Amino acid sequence: MLDLLIPTRGVEADFDASNDKLDSLLDDLENFRKQYQQKYKFVPSLTILTHRSKKIVFKDLGKEIFQIECPVGIAVPSNWRLLSSTKTVKRYWSPEVEKKVRELLEYREIHKNVVAEMQGRLYGRFDADYDKWMGIVRAVAHLDCLVGLAVFNECGLGEPRCRPEFVEGEGIRSFVEFEELRHPCIVEGVKQDFIPNDVALGGERPNLVLLTGANMVSSSMILLIKGW
Fold first, then answer.
1. Residues contacting residue 7 through CB under 8 Å, at least 6 positions apart
2. Are 74 and 56 contacting, i.e. CB atoms less than 8 angstroms apart?
């Protein structure tokens, strides 16, 4: 689960217990595999010598996970259920592995519910300090904007350029207002037919502008100019 937030052990007792149960089931399966590796021998066709097989492994194929993959030369009990095979290997479920796999699949579903409940509690803890988090986010966003403006002022391409004016005050509705805006990568004198654009949103004007037009009429350029 790549998107799973995993708490430090001891923070969420239910999550820890569920993880322990899953680990226990996986350990049981691995112990079965080690026992089979010790017990079942590979018999070469042209010699009477036998040796312990190190090629018994688990293979996941579709929904049938933990298939016991054995070289063709290994003789297994008749109560093992054949699931798939190739020219060199056969894959089985032994009765005990099949039972354990069923148990593992059932518990994985239970674990999903445990994870969902744990994440809900974790998000609740964050939400309790919502105002603090939003204050941090806004501060970082403002710094990012100011640093971006400063960097462009130092190394931006072309002219003209100007410094934006920030308007603050009680009761003022948020707005942006740009006049003769152009893309910073369009250097004056290189492209003669560029038409600057005025953009005004918010304040006494609507917050939304419906941008329409055919392809290749610079609608995307206007969005880029605005920084979207």
1. 15, 118, 122
2. yes
Encode pLDDT of 29-74 as tens digits.
Answer: 999 999 999 888 766 554 444 444 558 999 999 889 999 999 888 8
How many Å from the N-terminal Cα to the C-terminal Cα in the chain?
A: 32
* Statement to judge: residues 121 and 167 lie in one domain: no
User: What is the DSSP pairing of strand 175-181 with strand 197-202?
Assistant: antiparallel
Question: Domain limits at 179?
Answer: 159-226
Rounded-to-integer distance, Cα 228 and Cα 161, Å = 19
Looking at the structure, tell me whether residues 122 and 164 fall in a common domain: no
pTM for this model (two decimals): 0.58
Residues 56/68, Cβ–Cβ less than 8 Å: yes
Query: Does one domain contain both 17 and 118?
Result: yes
